[in-house]
Every structure is written in C-alpha cells, then in structure tokens.
Specification:
mainly alpha; two-stranded antiparallel ribbon; two-stranded antiparallel sheet
Length: 313
C-alpha cells in the first residue's frame, strides 16, 4: 500500500477550441522568460545596454529549440526511425523531447551570430546568461512532470512519484475510468529541478565572490550541471539509448563536464571584462591636464600657455 507519494498529472493537454494548450510547451516558455529576465538584470549590471538580451534571445532561442530537438531525435531514434516508428513525429516537438546538449550548442551559435552583429563579446554575455539557463532548465523540468516522464527506479519513499500509463497527452483509463498506475518511482525530474536551482545560486555566488569573466561563469554552469546530470542519469530507468549498457547522456555528461573543468583551469586568474558603452577612447597622444577653476579639462583642447609668445633670447 502506498502511504505517501507525489501525485502526477493525469492530463498534459487541454483543448481550447481547435488550439491544444500543452503544459510542456508552457513550461518551456516560462523558463525562457525567467532566464531572459534574470539575464537582463545581470547583463545591465555588468555594463551591458538594456534590451540587448532580448535582441540576442531572438536568435538564440529558435536555434536552441531546433538544436535541442535534433539532439533528442539523434540520441533517441527508435521512436522515429525504429521498427514501428514514425519519422514525422520527429517534428512533433509539442510531445516533449529536447536535449539540453543540442540546445546549448545550437543556441550558442545563434547567440554568437547576434553578439557578432551587435559587437558584443560572446564570453561576457554567456557569463551573464549562465544562472538564467539553470533556472530555465529547472522550470522546464515541470514539463516532464506533466508528461509523466523522467523518473528513476521503483521506490516506496515518502517522496516517491506516481507514474501513470500515458498516451497522447493523457493518462490511460481503466474500465472503471480510473488512471492506470504503473507504480511509484524516484522523481528524477524533481531531483534535477532542485539541483539546477541550487547550481544557479552557486554560480551567482561564485560570480560575485571571484568576479568571473571570459566565460568562466558559463563554464562553472556547465560543470555544475554535468555533475548533477551524471548522478541523476544513473538513477533513471525510463527508456533511453545506451552505449556499452550505459545511457549515452552519462558519457556526454562526463566528456562535457571535463571540458568545462579544463576551461576553468585554463582561464583562471583572468579579470572580468569591462564593457564600455558610449565611451570614445582618448587619442594616444592626448595629454590630460588638470583643470583649474573655470578652466576646461578636455584633452583635445590646447592649453592657454601653449599660445604664449616666446621671450626673446
């Protein structure tokens, strides 16, 4: 008998006339909005101009969604290209399935294009973005909860998660109209959600404490996320592609995490970039003279004593 367990939704899609409202999509959108708001605050505090985050998001978000879907389809191809699979479902992003690694890679390309167009250093922007990405990923995990996915092995712990048999955005009902319960499992989605929020706080703290720059805050985000994703992947029992009997995302977490650690070591000790907005550098040959009372201190203007007549020798 189940004494206590976290309930799961029995419906993840609501029909609003001909328009289906999907909880998974709403969670993704909410995560993007939260990330944009946090990044805007951090970017302006670092010297960036207001509104630049939205300009970059216009490029980065579509690239990220496309990349996330591509990675998901490549890493889980059976549902689309295996026996009984439907290749057209690869485009059904509303059913769920976005791989974070593809989203970060392709989103980075979109951000690079936007930053290049505006003359913004990509590493500096990535540092401002890092905690927002973790918050967005945490909110996005609620979409997995609505879809009854991303869970670990069976358990009867008080925080066990009820998982129902799922089909077409709704729980399958038995002959009495009750949802078919598959059992109670470790809530891997919740573990990752909490880990991501804790990691976001850690990155913000480390960034303030050590004034991280040149992409180091972003690398710290990648490293902290990979550490969490590694142990959470080892808990999961939902279907996934494997390599040598181990889930592919385990190998990905190790490789990407080590790469982030190497970058942090390589870039250690570098001061944070200073973003100058609306400032023109002074000419190399200009000499700044302290101004006296009522005098102009502009370095390009000649001093009054430069025009004194020379005394006869």
């Amino acid at each position: 008998m189940i004494v206590a367990a976290i309930p799961s939704p029995t419906q993840g899609v609501w029909e609003l006339g001909p328009l289906p409202i999907r909880a998974y999509a709403l969670c993704i959108v909410a995560g993007i909005v939260a990330a944009a708001l946090l990044t805007e605050k951090r970017w302006v505090a670092r010297g960036g101009a207001p509104g630049e985050v939205l300009d970059i998001a216009v490029w980065a978000v579509p690239f990220g969604i496309i990349g996330g879907r591509i990675y998901h389809v490549i890493s889980s191809p059976r549902a689309y290209f295996g026996e009984g699979g439907d290749p057209m479902r690869a485009f059904a992003i509303w059913e769920g399935g976005l791989g974070i690694w593809g989203a970060i890679a392709f989103g980075g390309v979109g951000a690079w294009i936007a930053c290049r167009r505006r003359g913004i250093p990509l590493p500096a922007f990535a540092d401002a973005l890092a905690p927002g990405l973790l918050v967005a990923q945490a909110i996005g995990r609620l979409g997995n909860w609505f879809n009854n996915e991303l869970y670990g092995g069976p358990t009867d712990l008080p925080w066990a998660l009820k998982i129902y048999e799922w089909d077409g955005g709704r729980a399958v009902l038995d002959s009495s109209g009750e949802p078919v319960l598959l059992g109670t499992f470790h809530p891997a989605f919740l573990y990752e959600l909490l880990w991501n929020l804790a990691a976001a706080g850690f990155v913000i703290w480390a960034d303030r404490r050590f004034r991280l720059g040149h992409g180091r805050a972003f690398a710290l985000y990648v490293l902290s996320y990979c550490v969490g994703r590694l142990w959470i992947e080892l808990l999961r029992t939902d279907p996934a592609e494997t390599l040598f009997g181990v889930r592919i995302n385990v190998f990905t977490s190790i490789v990407v995490g080590l790469g982030a650690l190497a970058y942090l070591i390589w870039m250690r000790g570098r001061p944070r970039e200073v973003l100058h907005r609306g400032e023109e550098p002074a000419p190399d040959d200009a000499t700044t003279v302290p101004a006296g009372p009522g005098e102009d201190s502009h370095p390009d203007r000649p001093r009054d004593d430069d025009h004194r007549p020379t005394e006869p020798g």
